[in-house]
Sequence to fold (206 residues):
Amino acid sequence: MHKYSAPNPTKLDRKFYERSVVEVARDLIGKQLIWGAHSGIITETEAYSGCDDPASHAFKGATPRSSIMFGPAGIAYVYLIYGMYNCLNIITQPEGQGSGVLIRGMKLSVSQPSGSDLSQLNRAGDLPNLDGSGYLHLNGPGKICRHLNITREHNGISFLDHTDYYITEGLLDPNITTTTRIGITKGTDKHWRFVLVESIKTSLDK
DNA sequence: CGCAAGATTATT
DNA sequence: ATAATCTTGCGA
Fold:
């Protein structure tokens, strides 16, 4: 059984996001993401650093697209990949450094399961729920944005000063593993992918 | 201005 | 394995 932080958890603040991108990526695992009417536990992240990371959009410096990565921490960076999927990132580190965390997986709270959601709801052995309802495991950055209706229109919104877009405390003591990052051809040596162990699919899952 | 590559996903 | 689909950034 998981332990959750106390009710009325505090919103993660600028100091949290301003740290090293790898630390922030790791520490976002198990946190609760609030996105409008949606909320869920973050289960998978990847760190993308700046000029030292060839896989990062910030590698070659600020471009029209990547300049947001060099801005202040705690800001959403949403980009389109392969012409059809959006990806949500959160900018980290002090201004001018160019880095961000890709949100790759989450357990979305589903209080009124219906239709196609029903067949995908996770059941036995899964994370317990905050409110007694179900979780939908969104494993993949494109799936998250599709389900939560996150688009490039949200590029630049702040997680620090909105009442309906923010991240709070979640699991008290999450088990986290690291692997190399997914879907990239450069920077494959860095183990900057973080996964909540309890969310890893096993043969016992349905 | 043309073009290749891309932090993905669903399907075969 | 591969198609789908279009933006971005680079080089000419």
In short: The longest helix of chain A spans residues 21-28.
